[in-house]
């Protein structure tokens, strides 16, 4: 439920419509399908490591153990600031969503309330985080299931009085709008929608019986997420033509009335659809902020205990919550949020782009760490039968995931081209995370004189 909750969010409820508008129904399905394959391999790679070595902090620690301490250092800080900036993004989105009902109240007031709620949930205990995330995820799952069922009824003419055929799949340039470039555009955007699946690995160190529960979660979560995304895109494509101007603008959190989910519910004759979807998207924002704060605090706690961050952030209270790490993350999230209120939000947009791109760097870390882990495991005389869970198609799986992640990372500059003009600001924003990662990696490597571990010397101690 943590992985599902971390993945089903505004990327599905809002941005899926914009993806159909950009690449057409066929382009959207291919783009999300390719990302789904990549995530499958990443999840199985993470599952193999997390079940054998359930550490809070997960793949960031694996990078230091199986590759190079500098690689683990750069991965850890990259993952921390990625989720810290996500906290700022969700604070901003929460304020905008509340203005749908109460437009006269400043958005920052609602953002502050949202921050108090997610800090409070994370302060209770890890059980408090897990319980809240379970219910947030359940609401989102029910919404998607109901949407797919109602969408089928609408497409069949049972609701709404109109029987839809396959005309939207052959309309104009459909099914593939813009050809290969259209698919590439969707591919670049779709990856951000799946961010959060790796949280199951971050939580493995604090889960009950990880050897049994983590593989079970990984097997179920991937197929359910893929079903939700692919199923929803098929329904939207059947009912709303790709050239509907509302789809092109559906990624705007300020106007929930043009969410593709709202459009389909309206076709079914559900009058209060905008209010329902706005409430669900608000829950989505709460869930994302909740998960972001959890991931940040555990990552910073892990770094402090690995001498990669000040020792104070390795302290926990009587409930096992790393409060110093939690408070620092909340503070950084506030600072990042404030940048959205000044200077026309240019710095905020750069931070937003860096946060999104750094998620792919985390996935690169998973693929590289797993490739090295399996090789080290064999080199040190272990048998694969010792693994509680074994990833499929090794070494092809992590290699495919690594290549697809590289395509997304290198393609970030694609969005800087608009009608033959090049926007340097957008280009820098797209590659900012790569620059920060390189500075962290080489800076730590130079300062600590670290080297890539020999396979026979990698630390495979389980706890």
TrEMBL record:
<protein>
    <submittedName>
        <fullName>Lysine-specific permease</fullName>
    </submittedName>
</protein>
<keyword id="KW-0472">Membrane</keyword>
<feature type="transmembrane region" description="Helical">
    <location>
        <begin position="276"/>
        <end position="301"/>
    </location>
</feature>
<feature type="transmembrane region" description="Helical">
    <location>
        <begin position="138"/>
        <end position="159"/>
    </location>
</feature>
<feature type="transmembrane region" description="Helical">
    <location>
        <begin position="221"/>
        <end position="240"/>
    </location>
</feature>
<feature type="transmembrane region" description="Helical">
    <location>
        <begin position="348"/>
        <end position="373"/>
    </location>
</feature>
<feature type="transmembrane region" description="Helical">
    <location>
        <begin position="393"/>
        <end position="416"/>
    </location>
</feature>
<dbReference type="GO" id="GO:0015171">
    <property type="term" value="F:amino acid transmembrane transporter activity"/>
</dbReference>
<feature type="transmembrane region" description="Helical">
    <location>
        <begin position="27"/>
        <end position="46"/>
    </location>
</feature>
<feature type="domain" description="Amino acid permease/ SLC12A">
    <location>
        <begin position="1"/>
        <end position="455"/>
    </location>
</feature>
<keyword id="KW-1133">Transmembrane helix</keyword>
<keyword id="KW-0812">Transmembrane</keyword>
<dbReference type="GO" id="GO:0016020">
    <property type="term" value="C:membrane"/>
</dbReference>
<dbReference type="InterPro" id="IPR050524">
    <property type="entry name" value="APC_YAT"/>
</dbReference>
<dbReference type="InterPro" id="IPR004841">
    <property type="entry name" value="AA-permease/SLC12A_dom"/>
</dbReference>
<feature type="transmembrane region" description="Helical">
    <location>
        <begin position="428"/>
        <end position="447"/>
    </location>
</feature>
<dbReference type="InterPro" id="IPR004840">
    <property type="entry name" value="Amino_acid_permease_CS"/>
</dbReference>
<keyword id="KW-0029">Amino-acid transport</keyword>
<feature type="transmembrane region" description="Helical">
    <location>
        <begin position="321"/>
        <end position="342"/>
    </location>
</feature>
<keyword id="KW-0813">Transport</keyword>
<feature type="transmembrane region" description="Helical">
    <location>
        <begin position="179"/>
        <end position="200"/>
    </location>
</feature>
<feature type="transmembrane region" description="Helical">
    <location>
        <begin position="108"/>
        <end position="126"/>
    </location>
</feature>
<dbReference type="Pfam" id="PF00324">
    <property type="entry name" value="AA_permease"/>
</dbReference>
<feature type="transmembrane region" description="Helical">
    <location>
        <begin position="80"/>
        <end position="102"/>
    </location>
</feature>
């Amino acid at each position: 439920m943590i992985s599902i909750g971390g993945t089903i969010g505004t990327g599905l409820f809002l941005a899926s419509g914009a993806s159909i508008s950009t690449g057409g129904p066929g382009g959207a399905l291919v783009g999300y399908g390719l990302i789904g394959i990549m995530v499958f391999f990443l999840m199985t790679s993470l599952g193999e490591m997390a079940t054998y070595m359930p550490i809070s902090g997960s793949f960031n620690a694996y990078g230091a153990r199986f590759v190079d301490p500098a690689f683990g250092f750069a991965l850890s800080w990259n993952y921390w600031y990625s989720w810290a900036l996500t906290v700022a993004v969700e604070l901003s989105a929460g304020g905008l969503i509340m203005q749908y009902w109460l437009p006269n109240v400043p958005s920052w007031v609602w953002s502050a309330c949202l921050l108090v709620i997610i800090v409070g949930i994370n302060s209770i205990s890890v059980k408090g985080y897990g319980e809240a995330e379970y219910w947030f995820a359940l609401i989102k799952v029910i919404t998607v299931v109901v949407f797919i069922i109602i969408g089928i009824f609408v497409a069949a003419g049972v609701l709404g009085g109109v029987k839809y055929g396959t005309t939207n799949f052959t309309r104009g340039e459909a099914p593939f709008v813009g050809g290969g470039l259209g698919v590439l555009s969707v591919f670049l955007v779709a990856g951000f929608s799946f961010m959060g699946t790796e949280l199951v690995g971050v939580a493995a160190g604090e889960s009950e019986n990880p050897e049994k529960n983590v593989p079970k979660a990984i097997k179920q979560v991937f197929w359910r997420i893929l079903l939700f995304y692919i199923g929803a895109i098929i329904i939207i494509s059947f009912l709303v033509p790709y050239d509907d101007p509302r789809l092109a603008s559906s990624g705007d959190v300020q106007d929930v009335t043009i969410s593709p989910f709202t459009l389909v519910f309206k076709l079914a004759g559900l009058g209060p659809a905008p209010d329902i979807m706005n409430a669900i998207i608000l829950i989505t924002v709460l869930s994302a902020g909740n998960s972001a704060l959890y991931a940040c605090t555990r990552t910073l706690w892990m770094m402090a205990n690995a001498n990669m961050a000040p020792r104070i952030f390795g302290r926990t209270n009587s409930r096992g919550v790393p409060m110093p790490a939690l408070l620092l993350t909340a503070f950084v999230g506030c600072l990042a949020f404030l940048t959205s209120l000044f200077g026309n939000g240019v710095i905020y947009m750069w931070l937003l782009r860096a946060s999104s791109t750094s998620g792919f760097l985390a996935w690169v870390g998973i693929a590289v760490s797993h490739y090295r882990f399996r090789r080290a495991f064999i080199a040190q005389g272990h048998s694969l039968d010792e693994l509680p869970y074994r990833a499929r198609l090794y070494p092809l799986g992590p290699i495919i995931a690594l290549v697809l992640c590289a395509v997304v990372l290198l393609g970030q500059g694609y969005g800087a081209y608009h009608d033959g003009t090049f926007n340097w600001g957008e280009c820098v924003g797209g590659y900012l995370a790569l620059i920060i990662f390189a500075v962290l990696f080489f800076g730590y490597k130079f300062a600590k004189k670290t080297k890539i571990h020999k396979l026979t010397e990698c630390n495979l101690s389980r706890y």
